[in-house]
Amino acid sequence: MSGGESEHADAAGGDRRVAVIFNPVKQGIEQLRPVVEDLAAEHGYAAAEWIETAEDDPGTGQAREARRSGVDLIIAAGGDGTVRAVAEGLEGEPIPVGIVPLGTGNLFARNIGIPVNDIPGAAKLAFTGRDRAVDVLRARVRREDGSTETEVSLVMSGIGIDAAMISNTDSELKKRVGWLAYVDAGLRAIPSSEPFRIAHRMDDGRTHRSKVSSILVANLGYLPGNIELIPDAEIDDGRLDVVRLQPRNVWEWLMVWRQVAWENRVLRKSALGRQLIDLTGGNKRREVVYASGATVDIVIDGQAQEFEIDGEEMGMITAARFAIDPKALVVRVPEKAAPRAADGAKQRADAPSPDQRSGEPDSELDEAELEAAEAAADEAKATQPLTGELSTADLAAADDAAPDANTEPGAAQER
User: Fold this and answer.
1) What values do phi and psi take at 199, rounded to 5?
2) Strands 49-52 and 18-22: what pairing?
3) Which residues pair with 292 in a beta bridge?
4) Which of 332, 282, 321 is nearest to 83 (CA)?
């Protein structure tokens, strides 16, 4: 069967229909087939429709095909790229998506409690789990040649060293050791990385300039190895999270690692730990800076930088606008979600969301919005210095001194 074609098994079954969109190069498909067929019959579905992804279409067209044909359930069998492509093809249609992780990182699956390295368990969850509506990130990016395109992200996107790390990952090592191959690539990428300047603004507010090694826009906060990059991130809170990494030397890179691997994961879980962070000056350091909101514009000052989405190399870009599309994808998850211990996440869940404060965020990105961000970046470049080393209080004072007519107070939050 060629890529993109669908295969219909001849078997009697129920009235409901399930389509399996699968990456044929991933190991585990032959193990998955009989499991899905048994589960479909057990839960009142007709024989599954098996739809291959293709090299030039990793799942978007296939999801559109399944959506138009009126299936009741889609199972995405592959890595983060397959799941992301399926989400793009559904375009907000609330068809439940079950996930059978067959990739290397499987970050999205890990964050929503899908069992990894357990094909029967993940397949069963696709049929029996509860439906959870989660946010989707949409990005409008500009390429070096001036062209633009729109991409979808479920996990996180990055510009700078993280994208360089992914492009430098050894494919054979990745097959042997999985996500640990990214660690090897990161250790090789850091010494040769060069900071770059960006102009950035949250929720169409004031534009700021910073010098960074990387800037990440995230929908969730956990990475493999129990690393908690963004303690407050929630996948259904109607916010995107932005992380600026701006260390100036090797010592500050070590402080970055200390924060994401120790402070975020361990110390912030308790009042005593948070006091220890305060006493050691953790909240005053500027190697890692967080912000959250409904949209963020990023314009690169100088040469184009490498870009990645959900662990996939996406080439070079010069600018991007990200917007959150709240609860645009329905996924099957375990009945009991894993508890989140971070107090910051609880506090943020109680705070007004961006759409409550300033109207529904616009997830339909167009050329005009990106052009407006680039114009604001040009103005900022001409009128203000780099602000990467300024404190949050300094930035807030600057905002108060020059309020933007299009900005609601408190529309973006930096911490």
Assistant:
1) -110, 135
2) parallel
3) 241, 413
4) 332
